[in-house]
């Protein structure tokens, strides 16, 4: 909800004419309560998760039917049956609606408290890009450690195993995980905006990113790592990064550990405990 009744009042408050985007934002958001603006996150997430992986999924299914190779896949030999796409999509959409949605709606007081703004002026493209870059770094760092913790025996067996059902990730499988994992991974995503508050439109952009499989196409450093992580399977104690790979580099989890000729047992390498995982 904007505190201006008319576009003229808004321009007076901003101290200049509105840009095209600001005029559109004014028309759209002037009479919508902030809480409702925040709630937009849920349909946006669902829409992005539905549409973004579609082109690559259709490409894969079509080439698969014609027995053509899949050049864009990191593990071209692995072919998912159409039922796997559907199962994956339905399961993640259900988690989005039944778990992520309610938590998003209930987290509004936190969004208020950290100072997410809805008014004018809109942030510039540069400001938005800088904020998203910070959020990516924060999320990558915290996400790395959460992922590492998820590979300890208890957490792996009860939560993270679901995400590892797919040994060769595809678009729809990227966010496919136990509902608890999807909720837990919301914290690193929220940590960035809590540290560096932004505009509501940046929140929309930012929270859709984890469900945007372009993060998992072979442009980012992390995709090969992550594919390798799935390829190795649940007992993998390496390549935990999702977007950047600096954490794996810093903590040495991009290399196989050989400590003074003394080979470390699997399950003990994550430094959190021991035991074997499947
Ligand atoms: C991590 O992934 C890379 C591929 O990006 C692979 O070459 C490397 O061996 C992996 N590291 C471990 C320890 O599995
Ligand atoms: Zn994992
Ligand atoms: Zn994964």
Report on the structure:
- With 278 residues, this protein is mostly helical.
- The chain has two domains: 1-32, no CATH class; 35-263, no CATH class.
- It has helices spanning 7-14, 20-29, 34-39, 41-51, 54-65, 82-106, 108-114, 125-150, 153-158, 179-184, 186-195, 200-208, 221-232, 246-250; strands spanning 258-259, 262-263.
- A two-stranded antiparallel sheet has the order 1-2.
- The protein is globular.
- The N and C termini lie far apart (51 Å).
- 31% of the residues are buried.
- It binds 2-acetamido-2-deoxy-beta-D-glucopyranose (NAG) and zinc ion (ZN) (2 copies).
- One zinc ion (ZN) binds at residues 163, 169, 226, 230.
- One zinc ion binds at residues 163, 169, 226, 230.
- The chain crosses the membrane at residues 42-61.
- This is aldehyde oxygenase (deformylating).
User: Strand percentage, roughly?
Assistant: under 5%
Order of helices and strands: HHHHHHHHHHHHHHEE
Mean residue pLDDT = 83
What is the number of domains? 2
Helix % is: 55-70%
Number of strands: 2
Kindly name the structural category.
mainly alpha
Describe the main β-sheet briefly. 2 strands, antiparallel
| Poorly predicted regions | 259-271, 273-278
Query: Kindly, what is the distance between the CA atoms of the first and last residues, rounded to a whole number of angstroms?
Result: 51 Å
Rg value: 21 Å
Shape, per Cα inertia axes = globular
Q: Count of helical segments?
A: 14
Strand order of the largest sheet: 1-2
Ligand roster: 2-acetamido-2-deoxy-beta-D-glucopyranose, zinc ion
